[in-house]
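Hello,

I think I submitted the zinc ion job twice by accident. Can you confirm which output corresponds to this input? Input:
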Amino acid sequence: KDDGSIAQIDTKWLARWESNPRTFQSPAVSNKPPCYVLSMFPYPSGSLHMGHLRVYTISDVVARYKHMKGFNVLHPMGWDSFGLPAENAAIERGVDPAEWTDQNIETMKAQLKRMGARFDWSRELRTSSPEFYEGTQRLFLTLFKEGLAYRAPALVNWDPVDQTVLANEQVSPEGISWRSGAKVEQKYLQQWSFRLTKFASFLRHNLELLKGHWPEKVINQQHHWIGESSGQRVTFPVRIAQPDGSLQHESIKVYTTRLDTLLGVQYLALSVTHPLVERLCETNAELKAFVKSVPSLPVGTKAGFWLENITAANPMIRETDENGTERPLRRFDLPIFVAPYVLGGLGTSAIMGVPAHDLRDYDFWKEHRPDEPIKFVIAKEDAVDTLNPPRTYSGKIPKTPHHQQGVLNENNGKYAGLSCFMGSKVFYETLKEEGMCLPTKRFKVRDWLISRQRYWGTPIPIVHCDSCGAVPVKDEDLPVILPKVKLTGKGGSPLKQAEEWVKTTCPSCGGPAERDTDTMDTFVDSSWYFMKFGQDPDPQFSQMPVDIYIGGVEHAILHLLYARFISKFFAKATGDQRFLEPFARLITQGMVHGKTFKDDLGRFLKPEEIDFTPEGRPIVSDTGSFCNVTYEKMSKSKYNGVDPTKCLEQYGLDATRAHILFQAPVGDVLDWDEKKIVGMQRWLAKVQNIARIAAVEVEFFRTTGSFSKFSPSQETDRAASKLMNELAIAIKGVTTSMEDVYSLNTAVSDLTILTNYLHATRPEEVGPQAYVQSVETLLKLVSPICPAISGECWEIIHGARSIPLEEQQWPDETQFGRIEAKSTADINIQINGKYKFTLHDQPIDWAGGLDPQAWAVEKVFETKEGYRLLNGRNIRKVIIVKA
Ligand code: ANZ
Ligand code: ZN
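Support: Only one job matched these inputs. Its output is below.
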């Protein structure tokens, strides 16, 4: 039945959108310019929360606006559906993670639809579906074939009670397992990483391109996260004794930030992933066994493997010939070790060992060469920046290493006496000449460890074969389907239990082999999902970059960094510059805080523990004392959560959406106070009123064929042009906010101002044509924010068979003449009828369309005089007089 209620309007429009899904689809081929609006896809945790409602409202408003602006809008939605909560539910309640996930998706999808969001569901994806994770597996293999995915020992959090690997989020800051309460240990496991460091420089320097389009704060966070420090890459000549007695010459590059300690080098050490180590393993079974044993070694291990056949020469040792010229002297006297304490994927994966001045080197040296003296080269002296006269270090040699900066001591020959700074400089200049030293930047960011000893994730498409090593699964055998496994929460990788699945044949030699039993970090899924949306259903149609990406600032570092990395990889691999930066513009929305009630002791109160005074002040039911009211992050333990669906049901989708936008600028925290939603309801009621009046005029026109009931006069002309000016102001304001996104709150206030203006205007004052045109324009401006009521109003005026409002063109303010320049005024403040002072240059719409009395009092209080005059008084009436 058509009762005109909000609930009825919602039902009607939701049904209409549901039955015409194509309205929201983005055709692959279109002559409109493309616009890709994306909000970060949700994890299907159970139900939508207010934060979701906020971000999807923002992206929906932008998508609807862009559509009316004539763009071919892509506004897709999907589910980040792999991850830990599904696995935990499975362990705790024995449910199938797939089923649990699907159910949650169903609930949340219904909620998203309930808010009237204009999503293109034909492109819906979920990362846990084989169609999607096949793509994730292909991505992995592409990286693998490019040498950008590698396997190396890495540390994991190990729960010794449950015998399982824990995610960082499962470990308390004190290092206790959330799961079993045990003290978490660290353990080495062979794990897959992506070589993100290869793109670090690119990732850092391209942040420049994002300036002005991304929040400065996010750019800075990325900058710091990637980090950059400068040091030197020093080449050490190396000699390898071959089994036949011949000597092979090579070199090893180390990364150091302490070039000044160069003459104190006593050995070199390589990480187990160093290319030379991999090569030597082919012929050295003992070394191979050592590398294999590394994962089981404890953290901070001093273990090392001495490469007996290899020695290195310090490039800084020189000799002077009979003519007095100095030349490098290659004395191959430095031993070389493979040591787990040297990290792979960091610097050059090789270090120069300076036991005297580096603690880790000291410990290592003491372990492996306990009897050899330690060579100190730096003295704790004040810096003396002069070569002449050289000063000899005469202090005592300290027993423990120290790495403070001081001066080069007598062990530095003719360089003794130089400050560390000057020493570095001189060594650098000398070696640079010979091509043995290169200043390099090193990044703080590490390679991206993607192995998870978890079940609910994308299986790694690799087969391990004793004779062939890690072999990629053949193209035609993708996807590697995640097998069903009974989850217990104990043991290592759950996939190990799927014995049938694990056992396979080697794609390369056909021999018996085993599948990799790790799954990928879910950040891998989200590092490319936005490319998938652009591809489907037509692979030709790859819409990149995302024009506007909207999401929470909590993803400012990892997700965005990984997505940028993968995108850059594609840009490089394909030469397609559209992938260079995946998100042309980034909007980060603030959190939603809930109204929180506490008693005097700071205890959180449940709704049933609160009463209200007749004036509406909350009191503690038991004691009658006033509650402390604050706004805090919504959480179950604070009883301050709000269910989005309840809100949508109670107030309608339009008022809820408008309220969300109006309460705070997009980037700020939003204090959710439902009481204030009546303001939006009143506004929308006015919009409906105005539309009805316009409808009567249009009906009159339709039946009589003219608006001539009124004869225009000079007065109506003047009023009409004033109205046109109001329209132009509103169009300009709302359009600016839509483009800016962050100021969508002011779009709502601009709309309320225009509504109030129209509400106070009768058609005959301005002429019915001008009136109807204004109402139509108002509805177009309202449409992206409140699509149901505005759509309904449009139908009241134009009938159900007209082209719907959401398909209309966005209005252009220049249609309505130029905006009058004067938009501010001086306001005289009188108190008790006496002039007190003047507020200068107040905006003409000084009340922001809201209660002018409250506005005036607030303004007056903001001034010193006003505060002095009014504080403590009971203000009954304010009269505002423009000067
Ligand atoms: C010689 C030296 C002497 C060093 C000394 C330090 C003190 P930051 O400052 O954190 O960048 N290093 C280089 N690559 C490494 C790797 N892959 N794994 C472990 N350690 C590595 O650290 C730079 C220092 O860390 C480098 O400078 C190197 O040791 C070590 F008295 O070289 B130094
Ligand atoms: Zn094989």
